[in-house]
Amino acid sequence: MAATQSTTRQPLDKQRILEAAVAFADEHGVEALTMRKIAEKLGCGVMSLYNHVVNKDEMLVGMVDIVVGETEPPAIGGDWKAAMRASAAIAHAVLLRHPWVPAEWSRRMPGPKRMRYMDSILQVLTEAELGPEIVYSGYHAVTMHIVGFTLQEIAYKQVLDTDLEQLASQFLADLGDDYPHMADHVRAHLDDDGNSDEFGFVLDLILDGLERAGPKR
Amino acid sequence: MAATQSTTRQPLDKQRILEAAVAFADEHGVEALTMRKIAEKLGCGVMSLYNHVVNKDEMLVGMVDIVVGETEPPAIGGDWKAAMRASAAIAHAVLLRHPWVPAEWSRRMPGPKRMRYMDSILQVLTEAELGPEIVYSGYHAVTMHIVGFTLQEIAYKQVLDTDLEQLASQFLADLGDDYPHMADHVRAHLDDDGNSDEFGFVLDLILDGLERAGPKR
DNA sequence: ACCTGAACACCGTTCAAGT
DNA sequence: ACCTGAACACCGTTCAAGT
User: Fold this and answer.
1) A161 sits in which H/E element
2) Residues of chain B contacting residue A132, judged by C-beta atoms under 8 Å apart
3) DSSP H or E segment with residue B103
4) I want to staple B80 with a disulfide (CB 3.0 to 4.6 A). Which of A36, A162, A214, B128 is the partner?
5) Is residue A85 helix, strand or coil?
6) How far apart are CA A145 and CA A150, in angstroms?
7) Which residues contact B206 (CB under 8 A, 6 or more apart)?
8) pLDDT tens digits, residue range B97-147?
9) Which is higher by pLDDT, A5 or A91?
10) DSSP string, B48-117
11) Using one digit for the tens of pLDDT, what is the confidence trace for A167-194?
């Protein structure tokens, strides 16, 4: 009855709780996440968690911030578009590894790491000298793209995985009767080999648009 | 004990339940939405709802679809960019009236009205003859913009309303110590008179980018 | 066919008691 | 200072009984 659970007997702390919660959400989805389940996973009583975390909401803020810690803010000082692209690509990959995060992102207050991340994006845009209005709009456009686009991508993937598996062609035929363009689009998704980098394409649309709209030409 | 509750004694049906639920979510937020609360509002037992709605998840799908019914799909056949802009502006206004919808949008399967809406967007892009890759990416870019941008806008509004009200300048000063660009950005939000149409600005960035990327030049 | 109260299996969190 | 079981006030939904 000793070494079956590896991390059970370390003392509890906030970091360990958040990491367990992130792992659980990655595996089972955030809707299955329960204080009782995390406690079970950590081998402690439910209420022990509350010695390190004020409540479930605050815990989710911390969980998102842990995931943000896996991203890389854009580099300051070089080519601002290249820095944005590189940072966005990393964030995109991180969010795909933690598919519950995009939906929580806007629902919760930002934690410190997310603040830092956002501040860096604003700094890069500011130093690109595009003018204050472009910085203001561009910031929203870029962050929205990173989170919103990935959110949509994940939603598509999940619907296609669960709904299409068994029905496949029959489902598509029914869909096509009423929604022909939608059926074509779903077919395009199915044919997509995953190498098309649609995410980067739309990001470039936005970045190029910002540059063109900016005063430096 | 007669006429105090207006709609109490009509027979229950799915439409009436969904409308009551939408009104409740508009007023109290979707996280406060409860089967028991809707039943109370309709003056019936909780379980009566289940004669018309299979469960809470399916009810939320129907609620989102009711809100989609307030939007206007883009017009087919004319100037595709103008049609997109007009339709997106309406959708933006509708989503601001029902601030819980953007967060639910990607979480749920689409209902029939949302299918129709999406199919129309795809049709307009298809008939603009931009090429299949642009249709594919453009569809995601546009829908993501409509929902994602508005979601972000709502989140900002709520954080600013609740968090800033009492603290205001002190909050901003603290924020500015660690996150100077973020503090500037929040100040820009506060100065924003609401007439700047940032939503339309970024949409144009995307639409113009799609046109430029398309083969018709 | 529609309605409904009681009951069940869960939640997050408070409280009081332990070390 | 940290831990914890019992209990509370909720959930969504099943079930069996009513009309």
Assistant:
1) none
2) 188
3) helix B101-105
4) B128
5) helix
6) 8
7) A202, A205, A206, A209, B138, B141, B142, B145
8) 999 999 999 888 899 999 999 999 999 999 999 999 999 999 999 999 999
9) A91
10) GGGGT-S-HHHHHHHHHHHHHTTS-PPPSSS-HHHHHHHHHHHHHHHHHHSTTHHHHHTTS---HHHHHH
11) 667 777 888 889 999 999 988 888 887 7
Return phi, psi of residue B72, to 5°: -130, 115
pLDDT above 70 for B1: no
> B81: closest CA among B140, B132, B136, B142?
B142
* Cβ(B182)–Cβ(B128) below 8 Å: no
User: Which positions ≥6 away from A37 have C-beta within 8 Å?
Assistant: A24
CA–CA dist A160, A182 (Å, integer):
13
- Per-residue pLDDT at B72 exceeds 90: yes
| pLDDT in the model for residue B168 | 65
Angle, alpha carbons A117-B146-A149 (nearest 5°): 45
Q: Which residue has tokens 């802009």?
A: B85
Report whether A30 contacts A104 (CB < 8 A).
yes
Residues A202 and B141 sit within 8 Å (Cβ to Cβ): yes
Neighbours of B47 (CB within 10 A): 9
Helix (H, G, I), strand (E, B) or coil at A54: coil
User: Which residue places its CA closest to the C1' of nucleotide C15?
Assistant: A47
Q: Which amino acid is at A169?
A: S
Q: Which residue is nearest to nucleotide D1 (CA to C1')?
A: A51
Q: Which helix (H) or strand (E) holds B13?
A: none
Structure tokens at A109: 């207050």
**Weakest-pLDDT range from A201-205, B34-38, B150-154:** B150-154
What pLDDT score does A7 carry?
43
Task: Name every residue whose Cβ is closer than 8 Å to that of residue B131 and which is 6 or more positions away in sequence.
Answer: B214, B215
Tens-place pLDDT, residues B90-109: 999 999 999 999 999 988 88
Among chain B residues 43-72, those with CB within 7 Å of any atom of strand C? 44-48, 50-52
The C-alpha atoms of residue A14 and residue A21 are separated, in whole angstroms, by 11
Q: Torsion angle, CA of B142/B144/B148/B150, rounded to 10 degrees?
A: 30
Q: What is the pTM of this model?
A: 0.91
